[in-house]
Write a structure and sequence with these properties.
Number of helices of chain B: 7
Structural class of chain A: alpha+beta
Keywords (chain A): Cell membrane, Membrane, Transmembrane, Transmembrane helix
Strand content of chain A: 15-25%
Membrane topology (chain A): Multi-pass membrane protein
Radius of gyration of chain B: 17 Å
Number of helices of chain A: 13
Order of helices and strands of chain A: HHEEHEEHEHEHEEEHEEHEHHHHH
CATH topology of chain B: Rossmann fold
Strand content of chain B: 25-35%
Bound molecules: adenosine-5'-triphosphate, magnesium ion
Shape of chain B: globular
Strand order of the largest sheet of chain A: 3-4-9-6-8-7
CATH architecture of chain B: 3-Layer(aba) Sandwich
GO cellular component, one term (chain A): plasma membrane
Largest sheet of chain B: 6 strands, mixed
Protein name (chain A): Putative ABC transport system permease protein
Structural class of chain B: alpha/beta
Order of helices and strands of chain B: EEEHEEHEHHHEHEHEE
Shape of chain A: elongated
CATH class of chain B: Alpha Beta
Number of strands of chain B: 10
Largest interface: A-B, 20 and 27 residues
Oligomer: heterodimer
Family (chain A): Belongs to the ABC-4 integral membrane protein family.
Chain lengths: 403, 233
Amino acid sequence: MIWETVLLALRAIRRNVLRSSLTILGVVIGVAAVISMVTAGSGATAKVTGDIAKLGSNMLHVRPGQAMRGPGGARIASARFTTADATAITNGIAGLAAVAPTAQTARQAISGSANWATSVTGTTAFYLIVRDWVLAEGRLFSEGEERAGAGVCLIGQTVKTQLFGNGSPVGSSLRLGTISFKVIGVLEKKGQSSFGQDQDDLVIVPLRTMQRRMAGNNDVEAIYVSVLDGVPTETVQAGIEELLRERRGILAGQEDDFHVRDMKEIIDTLAGTTTVLTALLSAVAGVSLLVGGIGIMNIMMVSVTERTREIGTRLAIGALERDVLLQFLVEAVVLAFFGGLIGIIVGLCSAAVIGRIIGVPFVFKPGVIAAAFLFSGTVGVVFGYFPARKAARLNPIEALRYE
Amino acid sequence: METNILISCAGVGKTYGSGANAMQALQSVDLDIATGEFVAMMGPSGSGKSTLLNILGCIDIPSSGSYQFEDVRVERLSRDKRALLRRHFLGFIFQGFNLLNRTSALENVELPLIYRKIPPRQRRIMALEALATVGLERWWQHTPGELSGGQQQRVAIARAIVGRPRILLADEPTGNLDTARSIEIIEMLRSFNRSEGITIVMVTHEADMAAYADRRIQFQDGRIVEDSSREVS
Ligand SMILES: Nc1ncnc2c1ncn2[C@@H]1O[C@H](COP(=O)(O)OP(=O)(O)OP(=O)(O)O)[C@@H](O)[C@H]1O
Ligand SMILES: [Mg+2]
């Protein structure tokens, strides 16, 4: 019986294809929006998580100043680190793969007539180990160059193209501000970070060079620490905290004036952010699904009015209220289902396109598809019920006389 | 001489609307119809013929009085119970065919059987038989739009008789047809009455058609003013 009712509904829908398609348009858009948001959102989360794992999930990041606590928690200016702090960590803590002190600044990079504003990182060769980064060509800083603060640099792919085009820049020179550097290596392409930053837009110089010739101080802004595989980062983190408290003369009971961050924390925060964003966007998309449901209700009401005589005939011939109710309810559900099906296809396609544009992978989530089907079915039942009840409650006498 | 009373109305009245708009379509109708009778109801427009037919067909209930179908007091039944009564015991030919548009003759005839939950194969056989009875077996695929008025009325008749009802109620079955078609239809109805013993109550305003019936009832202002089978005071 239910199968026959479905066939009947299909026929009623086919009878007016154009109107039926317009009816389900709202549901199509709603479902498509939800699906594409959730799919693109999961893609973004996957990308962020993957990216940070690539940064090295066993990486610690040590900075002066207190960790931010809540909104508006101003960072208290604290004493900078020095190269000696980095050395102390290297010598005092077990289980480390590499330690890289860094300082950063921004400069205009100039080569011949080419001119490019970029960021300059002063660090040691270990930085590339910590960041899991390799050279595309050339060589790293030698120990001697690092110690002497020589005028040599490594450049990222973006800087390379901006200043040197397609040719090999190794051996050429460039100026950062007024200081001249020799390019000794080119970094491999790393692409955009999760924040949309171009990670290849940088010049790396020896830390000593930056301190002496560019910043004019001995400051280290941050120390990157890479923990050996199998060594718990928590232990290392605690060791570094203890060591630095001692070195910075912080008494028991006083708060740290620096903080050690585990990359995992950052992953969680970022993944959390994308999840919240996805949820918000999906909620907005859900509203359009609601509007789609109202569209179905609207057209079903019209359809019931148009088919008053048919309903009257059915009732007079012996249809029960529930037979008529079921007929129109099934029609609404079948309509909504079609809407859901088309919406899922459209949603997945647009998620694939969006993913390609913003550069996140396509993550197929079967759960979302099932939920979308369920949801559109529910929309059909909820918004089909009212018109179906109107049909079922018609007075057969009046329905038969209806013109 | 009546052997078996099928339908019995006692003081049936019907009022439409209420208060100042109240319109008394039927006033205290007493009427018994026996199994196997062929009754014609006549009377001027607005005299309450359709109203009574709808009550006899359990589509409507009287505002006053009682209506008994076999031994069921119809006015006491719920809406759904009356629908079941219609489903199983009654056949209707409506004033103006009321076939489903864009639905084949066969499917139109199958409709009452669907609600009786008869399985598709058997349903199809029964519907084709009914169409054959009205001489439309070759037209089963055609939709009402592709059939003439007379053919449409015959489909409507097939739909009314396909479930072998106890009683067939016809509201002006020849109203929209020319004389030749009308005679065809009325003879068809009479043959059902004669050969299958189906009780028929038919509303008509044509005396020629009424002449085919065994019993003629005349209406005036919501009352029976003449009944060929008895004296009405
Ligand atoms: N649903 C209704 N609401 C209000 N008044 C109605 C309704 N149905 C019928 N009437 C009124 O009741 C009276 C009887 O109507 P009915 O349809 O029974 O007449 P009839 O004898 O069948 O006439 P006709 O030969 O024109 O079909 C008419 O005056 C009509 O206007
Ligand atoms: Mg009438």
